[in-house]
Amino acid sequence: MSAKKSLQEACEAYRAAFPPGELEMFRADPIDRVGIPAVAASLRLKTGTQFATHGHGATQDEAEAGALGKLAESVFTETALRAHAREKGTYRELARTRGPSGVVDPLKLCLPAGSPYHADMELTWVTVTRLTTGEKVLIPEEWVATRSGQLEGRTPLIPPITHGQGAGLTHEQALTHAILELFQRDGNGLRSRALDQGVVLDLKDAALGPELQLLLAHYERVGIEVIPKLACTDFGLVGLYVVGRDPALRDQPMALTACGEAADLDREWALRRALLEYAGSRTRKAFAHGPLELAEKLAPPGYMNRFLPYLELEDEEPRALQAMADWTQLSATQMRSLMEQRVLAERGRVPFASLPTSPNPGDARQRGDVLVRKLTQAGFDILVADMSPTNHSVVSLKVIVPGLEGETMSDHRIGERGVAKLLARQDPLAGLGKPPEGAQRVRLTPEAEERLGGPAWFHSRLAEAIVGRLYALYREPERHAAQLMPRRRRHGGAPS
Protein backbone atom coordinates (compact mmCIF):
# COMPACT_ATOMS: atom_id res chain seq x y z
CA MET A 1 0.00 0.00 0.00
CA SER A 2 1.35 3.45 -0.91
CA ALA A 3 2.04 6.00 1.83
CA LYS A 4 -0.55 8.34 0.31
CA LYS A 5 -3.28 5.67 0.34
CA SER A 6 -2.39 4.66 3.89
CA LEU A 7 -2.71 8.28 5.09
CA GLN A 8 -6.02 8.70 3.30
CA GLU A 9 -7.37 5.52 4.88
CA ALA A 10 -6.30 6.80 8.30
CA CYS A 11 -8.14 10.08 7.73
CA GLU A 12 -11.29 8.22 6.66
CA ALA A 13 -11.12 5.96 9.72
CA TYR A 14 -10.75 8.88 12.12
CA ARG A 15 -13.63 10.75 10.54
CA ALA A 16 -15.89 7.70 10.71
CA ALA A 17 -15.07 7.09 14.38
CA PHE A 18 -15.77 10.60 15.66
CA PRO A 19 -19.04 11.10 17.56
CA PRO A 20 -21.65 13.36 15.93
CA GLY A 21 -20.56 16.97 15.66
CA GLU A 22 -19.22 19.67 13.35
CA LEU A 23 -15.75 18.88 11.99
CA GLU A 24 -13.83 21.70 10.33
CA MET A 25 -10.36 21.43 8.81
CA PHE A 26 -8.39 23.78 6.56
CA ARG A 27 -4.85 24.71 5.54
CA ALA A 28 -3.33 27.22 7.94
CA ASP A 29 0.24 27.42 6.61
CA PRO A 30 -0.42 30.44 4.33
CA ILE A 31 -0.24 32.53 7.52
CA ASP A 32 3.53 31.85 7.50
CA ARG A 33 6.09 31.97 4.69
CA VAL A 34 7.68 28.52 5.05
CA GLY A 35 5.19 26.81 2.74
CA ILE A 36 5.21 23.38 4.40
CA PRO A 37 1.69 21.94 4.77
CA ALA A 38 -0.04 22.54 8.10
CA VAL A 39 -3.73 22.27 8.88
CA ALA A 40 -6.02 23.46 11.65
CA ALA A 41 -8.76 21.07 12.74
CA SER A 42 -11.64 21.44 15.18
CA LEU A 43 -14.59 19.32 16.23
CA ARG A 44 -17.56 20.64 18.14
CA LEU A 45 -19.75 17.89 19.57
CA LYS A 46 -23.50 18.19 19.87
CA THR A 47 -22.95 18.66 23.61
CA GLY A 48 -21.14 21.93 22.85
CA THR A 49 -17.71 20.59 23.86
CA GLN A 50 -15.10 21.82 21.38
CA PHE A 51 -11.72 20.34 20.51
CA ALA A 52 -9.02 21.98 18.41
CA THR A 53 -5.78 20.56 17.05
CA HIS A 54 -3.15 21.22 14.41
CA GLY A 55 -1.24 18.89 12.10
CA HIS A 56 1.76 19.19 9.82
CA GLY A 57 3.66 17.09 7.33
CA ALA A 58 5.58 16.92 4.09
CA THR A 59 2.27 16.62 2.23
CA GLN A 60 -1.30 17.75 2.87
CA ASP A 61 -2.36 14.13 3.43
CA GLU A 62 0.27 13.75 6.13
CA ALA A 63 -0.74 17.03 7.77
CA GLU A 64 -4.44 16.08 7.75
CA ALA A 65 -3.74 12.63 9.20
CA GLY A 66 -1.67 14.21 11.95
CA ALA A 67 -4.37 16.74 12.82
CA LEU A 68 -7.13 14.13 12.86
CA GLY A 69 -4.98 11.74 14.91
CA LYS A 70 -4.42 14.39 17.57
CA LEU A 71 -8.11 15.24 17.49
CA ALA A 72 -8.89 11.56 18.00
CA GLU A 73 -6.66 11.42 21.08
CA SER A 74 -8.52 14.30 22.69
CA VAL A 75 -12.04 13.32 21.69
CA PHE A 76 -11.81 9.65 22.58
CA THR A 77 -10.15 10.34 25.93
CA GLU A 78 -13.01 12.69 26.74
CA THR A 79 -15.72 10.19 25.87
CA ALA A 80 -13.96 7.17 27.42
CA LEU A 81 -13.22 8.83 30.75
CA ARG A 82 -16.81 9.99 31.07
CA ALA A 83 -17.86 6.34 31.33
CA HIS A 84 -14.80 5.10 33.22
CA ALA A 85 -15.40 3.79 36.75
CA ARG A 86 -13.61 5.54 39.60
CA GLU A 87 -12.53 4.20 42.97
CA LYS A 88 -11.78 6.33 46.01
CA GLY A 89 -9.28 5.36 48.65
CA THR A 90 -5.80 5.89 50.02
CA TYR A 91 -2.67 4.31 48.61
CA ARG A 92 -2.01 2.55 51.89
CA GLU A 93 -5.40 0.83 52.07
CA LEU A 94 -5.50 -0.03 48.36
CA ALA A 95 -2.01 -1.52 48.45
CA ARG A 96 -3.08 -3.62 51.41
CA THR A 97 -6.22 -4.97 49.72
CA ARG A 98 -4.95 -5.27 46.13
CA GLY A 99 -1.27 -5.92 46.74
CA PRO A 100 1.64 -3.57 45.89
CA SER A 101 1.59 -4.52 42.20
CA GLY A 102 -2.11 -3.70 41.87
CA VAL A 103 -1.81 0.02 42.62
CA VAL A 104 0.78 2.60 41.55
CA ASP A 105 2.68 4.35 44.33
CA PRO A 106 2.28 8.10 43.65
CA LEU A 107 5.85 8.61 44.90
CA LYS A 108 6.99 6.87 41.69
CA LEU A 109 4.97 9.21 39.45
CA CYS A 110 7.12 12.36 39.56
CA LEU A 111 5.15 14.57 41.95
CA PRO A 112 5.70 18.32 42.23
CA ALA A 113 8.48 19.21 44.65
CA GLY A 114 6.96 19.94 48.03
CA SER A 115 3.75 18.00 47.22
CA PRO A 116 1.56 17.47 50.31
CA TYR A 117 0.89 13.87 49.26
CA HIS A 118 1.00 11.13 51.91
CA ALA A 119 -0.01 7.47 51.83
CA ASP A 120 -3.20 8.13 53.85
CA MET A 121 -4.49 10.86 51.52
CA GLU A 122 -7.72 9.89 49.80
CA LEU A 123 -7.39 9.96 46.03
CA THR A 124 -9.61 9.12 43.07
CA TRP A 125 -8.29 6.19 41.05
CA VAL A 126 -8.93 4.66 37.61
CA THR A 127 -7.94 1.31 36.18
CA VAL A 128 -5.18 0.91 33.59
CA THR A 129 -3.45 -2.18 32.19
CA ARG A 130 0.14 -3.28 32.73
CA LEU A 131 1.37 -3.82 29.18
CA THR A 132 3.73 -6.70 29.85
CA THR A 133 1.33 -8.85 31.92
CA GLY A 134 -2.20 -7.62 31.19
CA GLU A 135 -2.70 -7.04 34.94
CA LYS A 136 -5.25 -4.39 35.94
CA VAL A 137 -3.68 -1.62 38.01
CA LEU A 138 -5.06 1.44 39.80
CA ILE A 139 -3.53 4.86 39.18
CA PRO A 140 -4.71 8.34 40.25
CA GLU A 141 -7.13 9.66 37.64
CA GLU A 142 -5.11 12.81 36.94
CA TRP A 143 -2.42 10.73 35.22
CA VAL A 144 -4.95 9.47 32.68
CA ALA A 145 -7.06 12.61 32.26
CA THR A 146 -5.94 15.29 29.80
CA ARG A 147 -7.83 18.27 31.23
CA SER A 148 -9.23 19.32 34.59
CA GLY A 149 -12.85 19.02 33.48
CA GLN A 150 -12.44 15.24 33.22
CA LEU A 151 -11.58 14.83 36.91
CA GLU A 152 -14.04 13.67 39.54
CA GLY A 153 -11.72 14.14 42.53
CA ARG A 154 -11.37 17.58 44.07
CA THR A 155 -7.67 17.58 45.02
CA PRO A 156 -5.58 16.28 42.10
CA LEU A 157 -1.90 15.81 42.78
CA ILE A 158 -0.93 17.26 39.38
CA PRO A 159 -2.63 19.23 36.60
CA PRO A 160 -3.66 16.76 33.87
CA ILE A 161 -1.49 16.79 30.74
CA THR A 162 -1.72 15.25 27.28
CA HIS A 163 1.76 13.71 27.23
CA GLY A 164 1.74 10.01 26.42
CA GLN A 165 -1.28 10.01 24.13
CA GLY A 166 -1.17 8.08 20.89
CA ALA A 167 -3.64 7.25 18.13
CA GLY A 168 -3.47 5.05 15.04
CA LEU A 169 -5.15 2.33 13.05
CA THR A 170 -3.34 -0.36 15.06
CA HIS A 171 -2.36 -0.83 18.67
CA GLU A 172 1.32 -0.81 17.62
CA GLN A 173 1.02 2.56 15.88
CA ALA A 174 -0.71 4.20 18.85
CA LEU A 175 1.66 2.65 21.40
CA THR A 176 4.79 3.62 19.47
CA HIS A 177 3.58 7.21 19.08
CA ALA A 178 2.76 7.50 22.78
CA ILE A 179 6.03 6.00 24.05
CA LEU A 180 8.15 8.14 21.73
CA GLU A 181 6.43 11.24 23.05
CA LEU A 182 7.23 10.17 26.62
CA PHE A 183 10.87 9.60 25.64
CA GLN A 184 10.90 13.04 24.01
CA ARG A 185 9.54 14.85 27.08
CA ASP A 186 11.81 12.96 29.45
CA GLY A 187 14.85 13.69 27.31
CA ASN A 188 14.45 17.40 26.67
CA GLY A 189 12.69 18.61 29.83
CA LEU A 190 15.91 19.74 31.54
CA ARG A 191 17.91 20.52 28.39
CA SER A 192 15.75 22.76 26.19
CA ARG A 193 13.63 25.92 26.38
CA ALA A 194 14.68 27.97 29.42
CA LEU A 195 17.34 25.37 30.29
CA ASP A 196 18.69 25.07 26.74
CA GLN A 197 22.12 23.45 26.92
CA GLY A 198 23.09 24.71 23.47
CA VAL A 199 24.34 21.41 22.01
CA VAL A 200 24.03 22.00 18.26
CA LEU A 201 24.04 19.07 15.84
CA ASP A 202 26.72 19.41 13.17
CA LEU A 203 25.22 18.17 9.91
CA LYS A 204 28.47 18.52 7.97
CA ASP A 205 29.61 15.26 6.37
CA ALA A 206 26.45 13.52 7.65
CA ALA A 207 25.50 11.92 4.29
CA LEU A 208 21.86 12.84 4.77
CA GLY A 209 19.10 11.15 2.79
CA PRO A 210 17.45 12.97 -0.12
CA GLU A 211 14.30 14.03 1.81
CA LEU A 212 16.34 15.68 4.56
CA GLN A 213 18.51 17.41 1.98
CA LEU A 214 15.41 18.83 0.28
CA LEU A 215 13.94 20.03 3.60
CA LEU A 216 17.15 21.76 4.63
CA ALA A 217 17.56 23.31 1.19
CA HIS A 218 13.99 24.60 1.37
CA TYR A 219 14.63 26.36 4.68
CA GLU A 220 17.83 27.87 3.29
CA ARG A 221 16.00 29.05 0.18
CA VAL A 222 13.37 30.94 2.22
CA GLY A 223 16.07 32.50 4.41
CA ILE A 224 15.46 30.65 7.70
CA GLU A 225 18.43 29.30 9.65
CA VAL A 226 17.24 26.08 11.27
CA ILE A 227 19.26 25.01 14.32
CA PRO A 228 19.00 21.31 15.22
CA LYS A 229 20.04 20.55 18.80
CA LEU A 230 20.66 17.38 20.78
CA ALA A 231 18.64 16.70 23.91
CA CYS A 232 19.91 13.22 24.75
CA THR A 233 20.65 9.68 23.59
CA ASP A 234 19.15 7.95 26.63
CA PHE A 235 18.07 4.33 26.09
CA GLY A 236 19.93 4.35 22.76
CA LEU A 237 17.37 6.68 21.18
CA VAL A 238 17.86 10.08 19.60
CA GLY A 239 16.14 12.98 21.33
CA LEU A 240 16.53 16.24 19.45
CA TYR A 241 14.78 19.52 18.72
CA VAL A 242 14.90 22.23 16.08
CA VAL A 243 14.73 25.98 16.64
CA GLY A 244 15.54 28.71 14.16
CA ARG A 245 16.49 32.26 13.28
CA ASP A 246 14.33 34.22 10.88
CA PRO A 247 15.75 37.71 10.29
CA ALA A 248 13.05 38.67 7.77
CA LEU A 249 9.91 37.93 9.78
CA ARG A 250 8.07 41.05 10.95
CA ASP A 251 4.29 40.55 11.01
CA GLN A 252 4.13 37.25 12.92
CA PRO A 253 6.37 37.45 16.01
CA MET A 254 4.82 34.26 17.44
CA ALA A 255 6.49 32.22 14.68
CA LEU A 256 9.86 33.18 16.16
CA THR A 257 9.10 31.00 19.22
CA ALA A 258 8.63 27.83 17.15
CA CYS A 259 10.29 24.56 18.10
CA GLY A 260 10.14 21.10 16.56
CA GLU A 261 10.80 18.16 18.88
CA ALA A 262 11.27 14.45 18.25
CA ALA A 263 12.60 11.24 19.73
CA ASP A 264 13.24 8.17 17.62
CA LEU A 265 15.33 5.06 17.20
CA ASP A 266 16.81 6.56 14.04
CA ARG A 267 18.55 9.94 13.79
CA GLU A 268 17.24 10.75 10.29
CA TRP A 269 13.65 9.95 11.25
CA ALA A 270 13.98 12.11 14.35
CA LEU A 271 15.45 15.02 12.38
CA ARG A 272 12.78 14.77 9.68
CA ARG A 273 10.01 14.88 12.27
CA ALA A 274 11.60 17.79 14.12
CA LEU A 275 12.14 19.82 10.93
CA LEU A 276 8.52 19.32 9.87
CA GLU A 277 7.24 20.05 13.37
CA TYR A 278 9.29 23.26 13.44
CA ALA A 279 7.37 24.43 10.36
CA GLY A 280 4.11 23.25 11.89
CA SER A 281 4.94 25.04 15.12
CA ARG A 282 5.51 28.30 13.26
CA THR A 283 2.10 28.00 11.61
CA ARG A 284 0.30 26.86 14.76
CA LYS A 285 1.68 29.63 16.95
CA ALA A 286 1.04 32.35 14.39
CA PHE A 287 -2.50 31.14 13.72
CA ALA A 288 -3.46 30.20 17.28
CA HIS A 289 -1.91 33.09 19.19
CA GLY A 290 -1.28 35.83 16.65
CA PRO A 291 -3.72 38.59 15.66
CA LEU A 292 -7.25 37.32 15.07
CA GLU A 293 -7.49 39.48 11.94
CA LEU A 294 -4.64 37.61 10.24
CA ALA A 295 -6.08 34.22 11.19
CA GLU A 296 -9.52 35.22 9.95
CA LYS A 297 -8.17 36.08 6.49
CA LEU A 298 -7.18 32.49 5.73
CA ALA A 299 -9.87 30.62 7.68
CA PRO A 300 -13.14 29.63 5.97
CA PRO A 301 -15.89 32.29 6.03
CA GLY A 302 -17.65 32.45 9.38
CA TYR A 303 -14.97 30.43 11.18
CA MET A 304 -14.48 32.95 14.00
CA ASN A 305 -18.24 33.15 14.64
CA ARG A 306 -18.39 29.37 14.88
CA PHE A 307 -15.27 28.89 17.01
CA LEU A 308 -14.86 31.80 19.43
CA PRO A 309 -18.17 31.60 21.31
CA TYR A 310 -17.28 28.11 22.52
CA LEU A 311 -13.93 29.10 24.04
CA GLU A 312 -14.05 28.65 27.82
CA LEU A 313 -11.43 31.08 29.11
CA GLU A 314 -12.20 30.15 32.70
CA ASP A 315 -10.88 26.64 31.99
CA GLU A 316 -7.47 27.97 30.93
CA GLU A 317 -4.44 27.81 33.20
CA PRO A 318 -4.17 31.48 34.32
CA ARG A 319 -0.39 31.63 34.13
CA ALA A 320 -0.25 30.16 30.62
CA LEU A 321 -3.00 32.48 29.42
CA GLN A 322 -1.33 35.56 30.87
CA ALA A 323 2.12 34.57 29.60
CA MET A 324 0.82 34.19 26.05
CA ALA A 325 -1.20 37.41 26.34
CA ASP A 326 2.03 39.20 27.31
CA TRP A 327 3.75 37.75 24.25
CA THR A 328 1.01 39.13 21.99
CA GLN A 329 2.23 42.62 22.91
CA LEU A 330 5.80 42.02 21.72
CA SER A 331 7.18 43.19 18.39
CA ALA A 332 9.23 40.87 16.20
CA THR A 333 12.41 42.61 17.39
CA GLN A 334 11.48 42.13 21.03
CA MET A 335 10.50 38.50 20.52
CA ARG A 336 13.69 37.77 18.61
CA SER A 337 15.73 39.24 21.45
CA LEU A 338 13.86 37.15 24.01
CA MET A 339 14.56 33.92 22.12
CA GLU A 340 18.22 34.72 21.43
CA GLN A 341 19.06 34.95 25.12
CA ARG A 342 18.64 31.22 25.76
CA VAL A 343 16.69 29.26 23.18
CA LEU A 344 19.05 29.90 20.25
CA ALA A 345 22.33 29.75 22.17
CA GLU A 346 25.18 27.50 21.04
CA ARG A 347 27.67 26.13 23.58
CA GLY A 348 29.01 23.10 21.78
CA ARG A 349 28.59 20.78 18.79
CA VAL A 350 28.02 17.06 18.27
CA PRO A 351 28.38 15.31 14.88
CA PHE A 352 24.97 14.23 13.65
CA ALA A 353 26.58 11.13 12.15
CA SER A 354 27.55 9.95 15.65
CA LEU A 355 23.92 9.51 16.77
CA PRO A 356 22.04 6.17 16.83
CA THR A 357 20.39 4.72 13.72
CA SER A 358 17.87 1.96 13.12
CA PRO A 359 17.91 -0.58 10.25
CA ASN A 360 14.12 -0.52 9.78
CA PRO A 361 12.69 2.65 11.37
CA GLY A 362 9.37 2.55 9.49
CA ASP A 363 7.91 -0.70 10.82
CA ALA A 364 5.50 0.18 13.66
CA ARG A 365 5.42 -3.32 15.14
CA GLN A 366 9.20 -3.68 15.23
CA ARG A 367 9.63 -0.16 16.57
CA GLY A 368 7.08 -0.77 19.30
CA ASP A 369 8.73 -4.04 20.32
CA VAL A 370 12.14 -2.38 20.54
CA LEU A 371 10.83 0.54 22.58
CA VAL A 372 9.00 -1.73 25.03
CA ARG A 373 12.08 -3.93 25.37
CA LYS A 374 14.34 -0.95 26.08
CA LEU A 375 12.02 0.29 28.83
CA THR A 376 11.42 -3.06 30.48
CA GLN A 377 15.10 -3.99 30.41
CA ALA A 378 15.83 -0.70 32.17
CA GLY A 379 13.33 -1.63 34.89
CA PHE A 380 10.41 0.61 33.87
CA ASP A 381 6.74 -0.30 34.12
CA ILE A 382 4.47 0.49 31.15
CA LEU A 383 0.84 1.24 31.93
CA VAL A 384 -1.81 1.71 29.24
CA ALA A 385 -5.28 3.26 29.36
CA ASP A 386 -7.21 2.18 26.28
CA MET A 387 -9.47 5.03 25.13
CA SER A 388 -10.38 3.48 21.77
CA PRO A 389 -13.95 3.90 20.49
CA THR A 390 -15.94 0.70 20.18
CA ASN A 391 -16.85 -0.78 16.79
CA HIS A 392 -14.26 1.30 14.90
CA SER A 393 -10.84 0.53 13.41
CA VAL A 394 -9.16 3.31 15.39
CA VAL A 395 -6.96 2.90 18.47
CA SER A 396 -6.42 5.66 21.04
CA LEU A 397 -4.17 5.14 24.08
CA LYS A 398 -2.83 7.05 27.05
CA VAL A 399 0.48 5.55 28.19
CA ILE A 400 2.08 6.19 31.57
CA VAL A 401 5.63 5.08 32.40
CA PRO A 402 6.36 5.75 36.09
CA GLY A 403 9.89 7.11 36.34
CA LEU A 404 9.97 8.96 33.03
CA GLU A 405 9.69 12.66 33.71
CA GLY A 406 8.25 15.89 32.37
CA GLU A 407 6.85 19.29 33.36
CA THR A 408 9.74 20.03 35.72
CA MET A 409 10.10 23.70 34.86
CA SER A 410 6.36 24.36 34.49
CA ASP A 411 4.82 22.35 37.36
CA HIS A 412 8.05 21.60 39.28
CA ARG A 413 7.43 17.88 38.86
CA ILE A 414 10.66 16.02 39.39
CA GLY A 415 11.74 12.53 40.36
CA GLU A 416 14.88 10.45 40.70
CA ARG A 417 15.99 10.79 37.06
CA GLY A 418 15.63 14.55 37.07
CA VAL A 419 17.49 15.00 40.32
CA ALA A 420 20.30 12.73 39.11
CA LYS A 421 20.66 14.72 35.87
CA LEU A 422 20.82 18.04 37.69
CA LEU A 423 23.29 16.71 40.27
CA ALA A 424 25.51 15.31 37.51
CA ARG A 425 25.92 18.74 35.92
CA GLN A 426 26.12 20.50 39.30
CA ASP A 427 23.05 22.58 38.52
CA PRO A 428 21.92 24.80 41.44
CA LEU A 429 18.32 23.75 40.77
CA ALA A 430 18.79 20.55 42.81
CA GLY A 431 20.76 19.20 45.73
CA LEU A 432 20.81 16.77 48.62
CA GLY A 433 20.17 17.38 52.30
CA LYS A 434 18.29 20.25 53.89
CA PRO A 435 16.49 22.42 51.29
CA PRO A 436 17.78 26.00 51.12
CA GLU A 437 15.36 28.92 51.20
CA GLY A 438 13.10 28.83 48.15
CA ALA A 439 13.60 25.09 47.59
CA GLN A 440 11.21 22.20 48.21
CA ARG A 441 11.84 18.57 49.06
CA VAL A 442 11.54 16.18 46.13
CA ARG A 443 8.96 13.48 46.89
CA LEU A 444 10.68 10.14 46.35
CA THR A 445 10.46 6.59 47.60
CA PRO A 446 12.99 5.60 50.29
CA GLU A 447 14.72 3.38 47.72
CA ALA A 448 15.14 6.29 45.30
CA GLU A 449 16.53 8.53 48.05
CA GLU A 450 19.02 5.82 48.97
CA ARG A 451 20.20 5.51 45.36
CA LEU A 452 20.68 9.29 45.14
CA GLY A 453 22.54 9.47 48.46
CA GLY A 454 19.83 11.00 50.63
CA PRO A 455 16.74 13.24 50.55
CA ALA A 456 16.78 15.66 47.60
CA TRP A 457 15.42 19.15 47.00
CA PHE A 458 14.41 21.19 43.96
CA HIS A 459 14.83 24.98 43.95
CA SER A 460 11.34 26.06 42.93
CA ARG A 461 12.02 29.78 43.35
CA LEU A 462 15.10 29.60 41.13
CA ALA A 463 13.13 27.63 38.53
CA GLU A 464 10.48 30.35 38.43
CA ALA A 465 13.19 32.98 37.91
CA ILE A 466 14.88 30.98 35.13
CA VAL A 467 11.65 30.43 33.24
CA GLY A 468 10.51 34.03 33.69
CA ARG A 469 9.03 35.39 30.46
CA LEU A 470 9.51 32.04 28.69
CA TYR A 471 6.65 30.23 30.43
CA ALA A 472 4.59 30.14 27.24
CA LEU A 473 7.24 27.82 25.77
CA TYR A 474 6.01 25.22 28.25
CA ARG A 475 2.27 25.71 28.40
CA GLU A 476 -0.02 27.31 25.83
CA PRO A 477 -3.65 28.31 26.19
CA GLU A 478 -6.32 27.16 23.76
CA ARG A 479 -6.29 28.49 20.22
CA HIS A 480 -7.17 32.26 20.07
CA ALA A 481 -7.65 32.49 23.86
CA ALA A 482 -4.79 34.96 24.44
CA GLN A 483 -6.17 37.32 21.79
CA LEU A 484 -9.76 36.89 22.95
CA MET A 485 -9.11 37.51 26.65
CA PRO A 486 -8.74 41.33 26.48
CA ARG A 487 -11.75 41.59 24.17
CA ARG A 488 -13.99 39.69 26.56
CA ARG A 489 -12.76 41.74 29.47
CA ARG A 490 -13.65 44.94 27.63
CA HIS A 491 -17.13 43.58 26.90
CA GLY A 492 -17.84 42.21 30.34
CA GLY A 493 -17.26 38.56 29.43
CA ALA A 494 -19.45 38.40 26.35
CA PRO A 495 -18.18 36.43 23.35
CA SER A 496 -16.47 38.65 20.80
Automatic annotation (TrEMBL):
Xref: InterPro entries: YcaO-like_dom
Domain YcaO: 55-496
Domain of life: Bacteria
Pfam families noted in UniProt: YcaO (PF02624)
Name this polypeptide is given: YcaO domain-containing protein
Organism annotation: Cystobacter fuscus (strain ATCC 25194 / DSM 2262 / NBRC 100088 / M29)
